[in-house]
Amino acid sequence: MADATRLRPFQPGDEPFLTDICVRTAASGEDATGQLPDDSLWANIYALPYAARHPDLTFVVTDDRDEPIGYVLGTDDTDAFERWFAAEYWPAVAHRWPERGNAEDEVDLSAEQAKEARLVGIASGIGSHASPHATRYPAHLHIDLLPQAQGSGWGRKLIDALADALRERGVPGIHLGVGVNNANAIAFYQHLGFVPLNDDSTALGYDLTVAE
To answer: pLDDT, tens digit, for every residue of 138-164?
Structure first.
C-alpha cells in the first residue's frame, strides 16, 4: 500500500470516507464508533462542513483504491466560517439530532445520549463568539489519519499542502485545538513548528509568514 498511497485534493464523493475517518479518530485519535446514537454527528461538526465550504482547502491521503484514509481540512477565516456554520450549515442538519434535555442530567440520558447532547451543545454554540486566536492565526484546521496512514510522514505532507494553499491567499497564521489528553498529537504539532497558545498546549498556532 505504501507505494500506492498518495496525496490529492478533495473531490466530490469523498464525503463518506471523511465521515468514517472522523469517527474512527474522534476519541483523541482513537476509534469513537458506537459512542453516540448517530456516529455521523462527529463529522457534521468537525469534517463535512469544511469540505462543503472550502473544498479547495481540503486534502486527502488515499490508498491503492484511491479511497481516503486521512485528511486535512480547514478554513482561511475562522470567524467567517463559524458565522456561516451557525447561519447555514447547522440549521440544515440539526433536525437529525433532536434536543435531549440537559447534557449533564445522567439520570434521564444514557451515556451515548449525554455525549451526543454535549456535542450538539458545542455545535449550537459555534459562531456565538469570536475565536480568541483568530486575530493572529485566522485560519484553523482539523487533521485525522487512519492507522494505515500514520507513521509515514503523511501528516506533515497534509499540513504542508494546506499551509501552502493558505499562504497563497495571504493568510498569516493557522491554529488548531488538541484534546488535553492527546499528548502524542501535541508533541507532533510542536515538532512541526506549532507553538502553544495556552498553558496546557491544547491550542497551538503556526506562523505562515516565516520562510521555511
So the answer is: 999 999 999 999 988 999 999 999 999
Burial class (CB within 10 angstroms; exposed 0-12, middle 13-18, buried 19+) of 106: exposed
Q: Is 0.85 topped by the overall pTM?
A: yes
The residues, ordered by sequence, that sit 6+ positions from 160 with a Cβ below 8 Å of its Cβ are none
Handedness of CA 203, 130, 44, 48 (dihedral sign): negative
For the chain, list the domains and their CATH numbers: 6-207 (3.40.630.30)
DSSP per residue, 90-118: HHHHGGGS---S-TT-TTTS-HHHHHHHH
Distances in Å between the Cα of 128 and the Cα atoms of 10, 42, 47, 99 are: 29, 20, 20, 19
Terminus-to-terminus CA distance in the chain, angstroms? Answer: 30
Which residues, at least 6 apart from 31, have a Cβ–Cβ distance to it below 8 Å? 23, 24, 25
- pLDDT per residue as tens digits for the range 116-143: 999 999 999 999 988 899 999 999 999 9
User: Which of 19, 7, 18, 24 has the alpha carbon at shortest distance from 146?
Assistant: 24
Phi-psi region of 102 (alpha: psi -120 to 50; beta: other; left: phi over 0): beta
pLDDT tens-digit series, residues 14-25: 999 999 999 999
Find the DSSP H helices in the chain.
Answer: 15-24, 41-46, 48-53, 78-84, 90-93, 111-125, 154-168, 183-192
Task: Write the single-letter amino acid at 155.
Answer: G
